[in-house]
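pasting for the record
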Amino acid sequence: MIDLRLPLAVLASRMPWQEIEAWVAQVFSHKGRAGVAMPDLDLFGEQVQRAAVSSNAARPRVPLRIMIALLYLKHAFNDSDEGVVARWADTPRWQFFSGCAYYEDRQPRDGTTLVKFRQLLGEEGVEELLAQTINVAV
């Protein structure tokens, strides 16, 4: 369904996706929470109380490769966050670039997810991702 000689398909095959995903996963790694000693003592010594853990009952995560690809496509095609997410659902080549094996007629998330992803990466993180894709493209 996709011509593998198209520039985006060639770029998808040459990108070091595992290295990029590992780097982004390291940025997003969950930090462990240490216990905090309570000041009052009981018969058994100080009580250690763990920090409150937030619930994991939320939407499932979008795969990192899709989020990285959406960020690249946004910059490559000079599109808005909402526009690139909407266009992704209609473009099989973009989905192939994002690592999808089959065409999906749905958006991966809304545009705010891409905004939050970009904010979590920070300006240096976004520049690093784009520099890696440019280096591969050259």
